[in-house]
UniProtKB/TrEMBL annotation, chains A, B, C, D:
It catalyses: hydrogencarbonate + H(+) = CO2 + H2O. Binds 1 zinc ion per subunit. This is Carbonic anhydrase. It comes from the Bacteria. Its cofactor is Zn(2+). It comes from Paracoccus gahaiensis. Its EC number is 4.2.1.1. The keyword Transmembrane helix does not apply. It is an enzyme of class 4 (lyase). CDD domains: beta_CA_cladeB (cd00884). The lineage of its organism: Bacteria, Pseudomonadati, Pseudomonadota, Alphaproteobacteria, Rhodobacterales. GO terms for molecular function: carbonate dehydratase activity; zinc ion binding. GO terms for biological process: carbon utilization. Pfam families: Pro_CA. Keywords: Lyase, Metal-binding, Zinc.
Length: 215, 215, 215, 215
């Protein structure tokens, strides 16, 4: 393994600032979290997008949220085929090992992944249909969502598909036997929200996703 | 899709607090980011663990980091097999579409995923060997790392494996043709660090991972 | 006085969120409360336990409840001996100065203080018998309650003692001449409840504590 | 024990509202907290005053804060005399059993207890000097604070004494051997703040209480 570079100085400086302030002020708590293990109350599944940090929106402090982030906050359907499923592994760990009380899927507006999915499904981005496109194959998860929005007026399709990215993921979560069991036993609950990165607003799915209501 | 629950009140309150302070103070910048698109300087690949938020450690502000988080901050090897690879999709998007300048893999101590991998590979957790274990199959990625640490003294193996989780991922990143090309063209650089969640310290890999040096 | 630390950042952020929302929305009322003084309708005596916030259970708004919280929601008997009695001072202030209409003692299940008292009285925790144990000496208040439950079946003793912690406190409240006078004049009333923190239920004492009825 | 009254209907209604909403939405978490025990990050010592609920100011959710509330947020000095010390018991439980990472003393403006202490010490309230006055004897804890403010201009004395109520308590906390040991070992930290209930502002003690800085 060659080709390793030292961390850029601006990050080293920020890290030292954090170490001298936040870490020092919270050392006792951080040590307890390390010794006794984490006990996060919720798992959050959100997008990798650099403009959507739920740690900010929800004021997350150390130990509160178990956070999985992938392109377009997607969860694939349950498929115990012995292959590598990073998202499914994260869900399994959160529900079976950590026993989180909430599973929160956080979508957002202006999502590049969702826009790519729309372009692909509507024929505008054939390169994403190629077998070798990782983004294309990942966005295949959202194809059922596209089917539900494709007859809407043109301008409404992408925003609707951003909400579908949340709903499809929630539906897929319920295909995992251990998630379904935990939800039905009242041990965990499902939540779907979409964050508008322009206006800072938040809507949440109600009535099984038939309505989206401003929080 | 039934079984949807409203967001817990404590999160709604925190969100409203964020909206009235951070969002309001940064509205102009957030709107520019929304209109013009994100342009993150770095991609960070880190663990879902609730005790490791790089947004804290590096004081990440909106728009700075494209963050993928999965169990044990792992990257699988390049496999353009047409199947769903969430991590590979995130890497592809970051490098090919966003052209990030840095790819930073952030491991951490006390990692539940790494501990599980060690237990599995050393025979102590046969349930993780089952085909249906998503965590087990995901941790298969780290098996080559286990081979390199298994002859160390018992107490050193898990800490060494936590570092291997970073090195294996960096090695796998270089199997992606577009990553290799970008690295070799000097368009992006690779960085490997491990965060000690007890002491708040940070070490980074040098000499291709042969040495780990305190930052 | 050295050894003072700045408030952790996560609390500062939450405070700023509260200031920008709840405070701002209620500024006029908060200012009136400040200028004209508090006029709480009830005094609540409850446990310090982090899982029992009567402000949540009863939706308490600013100005409504005068709240004293101590280990196991105990009130000692009247003892005008010139020594420091924090609980008695709080009761005196609530009844004599604030003239609250209700005195509500709120017990709860899974109470660490009550469990400690049971262990101490049954001989399982001799360290709590030591003169220097503040928790032990404080739980002495509940010894008469232990006498009334010690012959119950083993599994029933601690739950019964949690209810005794409420009843003993109510009995002790009536040993304060000013409380007795206010109760007998119909100026204040006594209430005893126990909150089940697992099921969220509430029972209240009736018939002088002979029966506990779900609210 | 006669003289028990049923809970007022308005509280029963609010409780049922809480049960049907907040409890139901958070049942899984509440059950986990009940089963696994509380692990609060901080102990807060604040006043009984109905206008100062730290659960609001800091957006406290279930499980986060171990809260002791007494008149004027006072902590007496360490006195292992075998007598009943409710505040000392709460501190002992928080530090020795729960191992909280922060001890936060929260004072406030317009404090009736502090005003009473000032009146007593300045000779304006001889009734508080009587042996039988529980409030008077409790406020004796703050006499050393009065000595430090009595030569200030008249109008500054009570506000300064409100801050002394925090500082004296912090000083007294350090007289407890187990608190001092925990602070010196970096296992817990001390914080002093005063909340202005009129303006909603917050100041914190710095430089060992020599300066108070707006948060």
């Amino acid at each position: 393994m060659h080709n390793l570079s030292p961390l850029p100085q601006y990050l080293i400086k920020r890290y030292h600032g954090w170490k001298a302030t936040s870490y020092t002020e919270n050392r006792a708590w951080f040590r307890r979290l390390a010794t006794e293990g984490q006990r996060p109350r919720a798992m959050v599944i959100s997008c990798c997008d650099s403009r959507v940090h739920v740690t900010s929106i929800f004021g997350a402090d150390s130990g509160e949220f178990f956070i999985h982030r992938n392109i377009a906050n997607l969860v694939p359907a349950y498929a115990p085929d012995g292959l590598q499923h990073g998202t499914s592994a994260a869900v399994e760990y959160a529900v079976a090992a950590l026993k989180v009380a909430h599973l929160i899927v956080v979508g957002h507006t202006n999502c590049g992944g969702v826009a790519g999915c729309h372009a692909m499904c509507s024929g505008a981005a054939p390169e994403l249909e190629e077998k070798t496109s990782f983004v294309g194959r990942w966005m295949d998860i959202l194809r059922p969502g596209y089917e539900r929005v494709k007859d809407l007026p043109e301008a409404d399709q992408v925003p609707a598909l951003e909400r579908e990215a949340v709903l499809v993921s929630l539906e897929n979560l319920m295909t995992f036997p251990f998630v379904r069991a935990a939800v039905e036993a009242g041990e965990t609950s499902l939540h779907g929200i979409v964050h508008d990165i322009t206006e800072g607003t938040l809507v949440q799915a109600e009535d099984g996703g038939k309505r989206w209501v401003t929080v």
